[in-house]
Amino acid sequence: MIPANLFQQFGLYFAWVVSLLATGGSLYFSEVMGFIPCSLCWYQRILMYPLIILLGIASYRNDRAIIPYTLPLSIIGGGISLFHYLQQKVPGLASLAPCKTGVPCSGMYINWLGFITIPFLALVAFILISLFLWLGRNQNSGTQA
User: Which among 50, 54, 44 has a CA at the least distance from the CA of 77?
Assistant: First the structure.
């Protein structure tokens, strides 16, 4: 059984680990597999990559004061990931693609099990980071520092 305060105590660290995995995955897809990122992929990367540094330092120092600054990055990144995923899976939204040149945002390099695409993986990562940050935000609430 998971202790009730596990996510509260280690939420910052868990969020950092998810950001590491997500960034590693995105770099693997682009640098090893040769998948060229579209415009929306780049926006998601812009919001994910700084989280490695910010959450890594904050985890090391156990500094929860970073959460109000990093939580908006993960929420906005999740919104972009959701929009990107919907562009891939809902045919009518593909015409709204901001990708005018280069790789189309509606294209899918992977489509595992018929629903898991790269934007879906990014969405899951942003949701997990947001959840862990939210759960880890009030470890010391009600106590004197």
Answer: 44
**Residue 86 carries which side chain, given as an amino acid letter?**
L
Q: CA 11 to CA 135: how far, in whole Å?
A: 6
Q: Structure tokens of 32?
A: 């090893």
Ordered by start, the domain boundaries in the chain are 7-135
Could you report the per-residue pLDDT of 36-63, keeping only the tens digit for each? Answer: 999 999 999 999 999 999 999 999 999 9
- As given in the structure block, the two tokens for residue 54 are 């910010």
User: Which secondary-structure segment (H or E) carries 125?
Assistant: helix 118-135
Distance (Å, rounded) from C-alpha 6 to C-alpha 141? 15
Q: How many helices (H) and strands (E) does the chain have?
A: 4, 0
Looking at this protein, which amino acid is placed at residue 65? A
What does the DSSP 8-state code read for residue 28?
I
